């Protein structure tokens, strides 16, 4: 089941796709695309959809890179927390720290 943020993102994506589709359908004439060594003619709809696809790929790659960096940082912090926890002499203190960590866990969805 999707949370509110997920639903909002899907609605936004569908709205954006609809706008791109309508804009593309309204621009079906041929255009000349110039590049360094020449040019070619293609329907404008292909240029629009190609640009949207390239932009989406760039956003996906940048977002994926940030996600990997955050995941690695989280693993590093968890490893450091485990080392600190194992160095504590008193199990009661370790249990107290565990309770504080669980109370401050922001990854759980709100009820």
From TrEMBL:
GO cellular component, one term: plasma membrane
Coiled-coil annotated spans: none
Keywords of the record: Cell membrane, Membrane, Transmembrane, Transmembrane helix
Stretches assigned to the Lipopolysaccharide assembly protein A domain: 27-88
Pfam families listed in its UniProt record: LapA_dom
Parts of the chain that traverse the membrane: 44-68
PANTHER family hit by this protein: MEMBRANE PROTEIN, MEMBRANE PROTEIN-RELATED
Identification of the protein by name: LapA family protein
Species annotation: Anoxybacillus flavithermus
Lineage: Bacteria, Bacillati, Bacillota, Bacilli, Bacillales
């Amino acid at each position: 089941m999707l949370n509110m943020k997920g639903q909002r993102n899907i609605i936004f994506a569908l709205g954006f796709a609809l706008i791109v589709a309508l804009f593309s359908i309204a621009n079906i004439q041929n255009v000349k695309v110039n590049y360094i060594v020449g040019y070619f003619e293609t329907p404008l709809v292909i240029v629009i959809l190609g640009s949207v696809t390239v932009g989406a790929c760039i956003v996906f790659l940048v977002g994926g890179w940030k996600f990997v960096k955050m995941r690695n940082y989280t693993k590093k912090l968890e490893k450091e927390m485990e080392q600190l926890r194992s160095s504590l002499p008193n199990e009661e203190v370790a249990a107290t720290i565990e309770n504080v960590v669980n109370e401050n866990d922001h990854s759980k969805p709100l009820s």
